[in-house]
Specification:
It comes from Candidatus Sedimenticola endophacoides. The chain is 49% helix and 18% strand. It is an alpha+beta fold.
Length: 833
């Protein structure tokens, strides 16, 4: 391993062996590393170096770019033990299970060698299951077994090898992004200052001073201005180019660095040799550095504005809450509020938590969550969400969810993941960029060789122009910019997209499958009739007799443990009749089939006919005729059995959801194939389909068969999107090419889906499809913009019609066009509003 270290030149005498910074001999700290005496600037560098060698990771020094000074180890966060507390970790980890996943913001990462060192160091720690570094974002994702390893130990281990890490906070990351943009602005300003001064030198030389006695003086003044500009303002390009070359991944910084270096070195040669033949091009170097930095800065600002949806969502989360403790109102930080406490929300305030209204009533503006501008009335027992705005009333809310566990927190997490994801088309673009740069270098070389025999300076300027004007940046920006804009705008309008691949896949969907209950229908069923062997009851007749009242009371006791819309209908009627709810035993929920429990020694089962047969229930043949009549009206039915004997048949009606008919008509007009998938009887499902204008119906489908139906459609070359909302839809949502869940659905269905419609408005299904198609079209347009730009500009540069300065002005154009074109996606929502 010492031989590997030797491949990298040792630190110069008087410099720290680890960070290469100058060391005062009087303060130098000595240590023996691998049998060789080494000098360090501080205890921190000595400890880091010893830790790296002790772990057998001295290859880090070999991978570090030559001449690149490493920063001394940053100061570790104080009170590391706090990060081991579940109360602290719950703000940053997805779940507090045995295996946890966290993103850390790491200070001190500067190159691919750092990535290699961090990942290999952590992977060697028992308990670490995953360590992955995002170099551009300086973020580290760690997955670890909390039972075997503490988070503080991971952060301490990073500190020992020279990196300070803290849990990733989007606000901190936003501040980091602002700092990077500020540094870019400083470099641009420095280059602008030098450019303005060099213009006076250039005017003098072009006016005849290049023939006089002051020619050499002007050349040296130009050298003094251009040299610090190249070193300071050009540093990002040289750093990026060197990193790309070392990692065999050529980026746009390579041709910029090569072009600037060659032009500068030729000018230095003319200056030092004082040759009468040849001109200096310091002004060209500084001018195109300035123009490119202007372009980069505009790109950074535009990108930040385009993807600022996450920050706007974060701004919706109140930082403090008014908590009622010991009968007193206390304003406390939101992070100190605990689940189960009661918060007070005054008129006009944002609700700070997810919770349930205990007292008061008001109208709530939920536009940030659902995209709907119409306020919603909330009263006792209603659920409210963090970030929504309270209207005219005062509310007391019991806390049910905080920060990451609120609906707003989940939206932010989904948007961040979508913006960080890659669509398949982006992977192709990423593979093209290195080849694109290689072709650029080849064309620049051929251009120089073609013109060098006629005019060396002309050849140099033409080759430099080719290096500068080619721009694969649009390939790199085409997909991430479009996905970031689309996912951010979608979130603001109640359409949550979980990753970039979803947008690309959704654009190619040709078959949409709808669950019936709760999707095409409202999912708020009402009990319309009850038929027993000795009598019947219909809605509108008032309270039923003792027999049916007793049936409903017992059934409500069982159904209160279910979340199915049928259960809600029965419980609503029981509440209307003010029936007492009694406890049950041995409750079993069979999604898509029914429920079963014991009450007072009687086994009660309620569900569909097929399930009753499976349980061996003795069915009443009279109910078969009644059920057929209900089917023809599009009314569902529920069979009720006591101790294995059918005792009643209940009629349940679910109204068609508002917007269902226009959606079906619009999708048909778009050429989509449509299927209604239901667990109801064939007649009931077909009646609903007829009311919606007709579509294929697949009825009497058991929950475990729903995903088989989707698989069968996919086997027939269909690209299938499944729209559902219930627990029994989850397997089908996962199986489908795209799963779309309604926000009113269950947590399981929402977790299984690729797209979540927060407002449960069906029209947004079509809007999501339109968003995906617009996004993919925008990506293709952006790639086309880049190709067209280069096809036109590169031949002009090779033919010497474009100077390096003009090339520098033109180079950012394609990137800015890509950003502007991506921003046009927002016009889709203006048309819909």
């Amino acid at each position: 391993m010492e031989a590997a270290r030797a491949e990298t030149p040792p630190a110069a005498e008087g410099c720290c062996y680890h960070c290469s910074l100058p060391v005062d001999p009087a303060e130098e700290i000595h240590a023996e590393i691998e049998g060789e005496p080494r000098g360090f600037c501080c205890i921190g560098c000595k400890s880091v170096c010893e830790a790296i060698y002790a772990a057998g990771l001295q290859g880090f020094y070999q991978r570090t770019p030559e001449g690149t000074p490493l920063a001394p180890p940053p100061e570790l966060p104080r009170e590391l033990a706090l990060y081991d507390l579940d109360e602290v970790q719950e703000e940053f980890v997805a779940s507090l299970g045995d295996v946890r996943d966290i993103h850390l913001l790491v200070e001190g990462i500067h190159c691919a060698a750092c990535v290699w060192l961090i990942e290999n160091t952590l992977r060697s720690m028992p308990g670490v299951e995953l360590a992955r570094v995002n170099l551009s974002g300086r973020r580290l994702r760690v997955q670890w077994d909390n039972g075997r390893l503490r988070l503080s130990a991971i952060i301490q281990r990073l500190g020992r090898i020279g990196y300070a890490a803290v849990p990733y906070d989007p606000e901190a990351a936003e501040g980091s992004l602002k700092r990077e943009n500020r540094h870019l602005l400083y470099r641009m300003a420095f280059a602008g200052f030098s450019m303005m001064n060099l213009l006076w030198i250039s005017i003098a030389l072009y006016s005849g001073a290049d023939q006089g006695e002051f020619k050499g003086l002007f050349h040296w003044v130009g050298f003094c201005l251009a040299t610090p500009t190249l070193i300071y303002s050009g540093q990002p390009f040289f750093k990026g180019a060197w990193s790309g070359i070392r990692n065999l991944h050529l980026g746009m910084d390579v041709p910029i660095a090569v072009g600037a270096s060659i032009t500068y070195l030729y000018s230095v040669y003319v200056t030092v040799s004082a040759t009468a033949v040849g001109e200096v091009y310091y002004d060209t170097v500084v001018n195109f550095l300035f123009v490119i930095l202007v372009g980069r800065y505009l790109e950074a600002i535009s990108k930040r504005q385009a993807v600022a949806s996450t920050q706007r969502l974060l701004d919706l989360q109140p930082r403090v809450a008014t908590v009622l403790r010991d009968g007193e109102e206390r304003i406390v930080p939101i992070r100190s509020v605990k689940s189960g406490e009661v918060v007070l929300v005054r008129p006009g305030e944002r609700i700070p938590v997810d919770g349930v209204v205990l007292e008061g009533s008001s109208v709530i503006d939920e536009a940030m969550l659902t995209g709907e501008s119409e306020p919603v009335v909330k009263g006792l027992g209603a659920q409210v969400s963090a970030g929504t705005i309270n209207g005219h009333g005062v509310l007391k809310v019991e806390v049910r969810g905080l920060l990451r566990d609120t609906a707003l927190g989940r939206i932010i997490r989904l948007v961040e993941e979508a913006q960080a994801s890659k669509a398949p088309i982006q992977c192709v673009a990423d593979r093209i960029v290195p080849w694109f740069v290689a072709v650029t270098l080849t064309l620049a070389t051929l251009t120089f060789l073609y013109w060098v025999n006629s005019d060396f300076e002309l050849a140099l300027m033409a080759a430099t122009a080719v290096l500068i004007i080619t721009c694969p940046c649009a390939f790199g920006l085409a997909t991430p910019m479009s996905i970031a804009v689309a996912s951010g705008l979608g979130a603001r309008h109640g359409i949550l997209v979980k990753n970039g691949e979803v947008l690309e896949t959704l654009s190619s969907i040709n078959h949409v499958v709808f669950d019936k209950t709760g999707t095409l229908t409202e999912g708020r069923m009402s009990l319309t009739s009850v038929r027993t062997a000795s009598g019947q009851w219909r809605r509108g007749e008032g309270r039923a007799g003792a027999e049916i009242t007793d049936l409903i009371g017992r059934l409500a006791a069982v159904e209160r443990y279910s979340e199915h819309p049928v259960a809600s209908a029965i419980l609503d009627l029981a509440d209307e009749w003010k029936l007492e709810r009694v406890p049950v035993e041995e409750f079993e929920n069979h999604p898509g089939y029914g429920v079963r429990a014991r009450l007072g020694g009687i086994e009660i089962a309620a569900g569909n006919r097929a399930w009753m047969k499976g349980l061996g229930v003795a069915l009443n043949p009279e109910f078969e005729t009644v059920q057929e009549g209900l089917d023809r009206q599009g009314i569902g039915s529920l069979h009720l059995a006591w101790d294995g004997v059918e005792v009643a048949l209940l009629g349940l009606e679910d109204r068609i959801r508002e917007g269902a008919l226009p959606l079906i008509e619009a999708l048909k007009a778009d050429g989509m194939q449509l299927t209604l998938l239901s667990g109801d009887r064939q007649g009931t499902a077909e009646a609903i389909a007829r009311r919606l204008g007709g579509m294929e119906v697949i009825a009497e489908v058991m929950p475990e068969d729903k995903d088989r139906v989707i698989a069968r459609l996919q086997a027939g070359s269909h690209k299938v999107a499944m729209v559902g909302d219930g627990v029994n839809d989850a397997p089908a949502l996962v199986r489908a090419d795209i799963g779309i869940a309604l926000g009113s659905g269950t947590d399981v269905s929402i977790a299984s889906a690729d797209i979540v419609l927060m407002s449960s408005e069906l029209r947004k299904v079509r809007l999501a499809v339109a968003l995906s198609r617009r996004t993919l079209r925008t990506i293709r347009q952006n790639i086309g913009i880049s190709i067209t730009y280069n096809v036109i500009m590169v031949p002009l540069a090779m033919a010497t019609f474009v100077t390096p300065l003009v090339a520098a002005v033109s180079m950012p154009v394609s990137s800015l066009l890509v950003i502007g074109n991506a921003a046009r996606i927002r016009t889709l929502f203006r048309k819909q509003s």
